[in-house]
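[agent] plan:
  1. take the single chain provided in the ticket
  2. run structure prediction with default settings
  3. attach structure tokens to the ticket
  4. add a short note for the reviewer (M.T.)
[agent] executing step 1
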Amino acid sequence: TALVEPHIRHLDGAVREVSTPPFAAPVAAGSLADIPFDNARQAPTEAVLSRKGSDGRWRDVSAGDFAEEVLAVAKGLIAEGLAPGDRLAIMARTTYEWTLLDFAAWAAGLVTVPVYPTSSAYQTRWIVQDSGAVALAAETAELASSLGPERDRMPDLRHLWSFEKGDVRRLAELGRRNGHIDDAEVHARRGELKPSSVATLIYTSGTTGRPKGCVLTHGNFFAEVDNAIELLHPVFKSVSKEPASTLLFLPLSHVFGRMVAIGCLRARVRLGHAPSIQTEDLLRDLGSFRPTFLLAIPYVLEKVFNTGRATAEKMRRASSFDRAARIAVRYGEAVEARQHGTGPGPAFGLRMARALYDPLVYRRIRAALGGKVRYAICGGSPLGRRLAAFYAGAGIEIFEGYGLTETTAAATVTPPLKPRLGTVGWPLPGTKVRIADDGEVLLSGGQVFAGYW
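[agent] step 2 finished; step 3 output follows
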């Protein structure tokens, strides 16, 4: 997709409104529940996920196999008595089962409610109680049992399941062998869903009072991911020989991670899940999965940089690392200047210096992230111009964004081909950003939520 400049409106010499036309047409019918089945029909043997086994090896899951599993779990949920519109709470780290349950619930006409696994029993009880969830699936038996003291105060909660006890597998087996629930029941339920149907309630703490449930529709997610996929074409539709893939380690309880998981399945980008964000575990998973892009928060990128610097210091090569870092920053800034027409780009000497340090420093930075990463989508807090320039110079382009749960993740994002380092870019295609007279930021677009629960 060609880069389209945003429309900018000024008032009294100041920018007051910026809007970018949509890259993707609004989805007129259907829901997120259709994605696995569309993928299975269009490319049944294509790997859309990879699942890590107990032996540490990644095994691909084809579009056809994932759709079959979604269908089986959806039938199991129906067999357990869950009706269209019922809420299913999911309390787990970033795992394959999380994404499977998400899509299976939608296929059964349900609404999913994420709960952070670090939530207290009181916080969990409030979310389950307020949402009216009839079932909760927790990653571990310990998480499930931690609700014991609060269980009597959740009158709507009829089912308490655990990934660890094999309840997701049990639901799938129940769906496969239950003769009373056929495939047509699932397809009829998902056929009733529309873009305006509620997909999920994501509870956000806000600034005052108890957490509030943000009502996000299937259409909200389509508006977000379809425009993001088109804008970030090199990321989701890899222009290299290496097929696009990512290892998701940010929480699926957060809208940022959830949006990318949905976007990957929508674009048929191979997706893996990493439940542990402990540095040693995460680096091991990145090294074995070898993604082409990452979803990250600044802390992760800062940690990789600082670890590289500390390693160099132990080897008495800190001064060499620092020089390589300065060269990468200068290179990234020179590329930025060329893209904006304010400079000729990296000079010959700078290009040679970068080439010299690539095997010594930059390649090792990339290796820490798996070795194949070329892009990172970054949000949550500011990354900083210098670090963004460093990674650009080291061969990893950073796309920063700004958004809220209420905007289904990104409302703005750095555009390819014309990035401005250290900023959150332009409005996502189809989005308008306005600055009110009192300085309040106003946002509109197809990804803006339907309201609070």
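[agent] step 4 note for reviewer: The chain has two domains: 34-193, 244-251+253-452.
[agent] ticket updated
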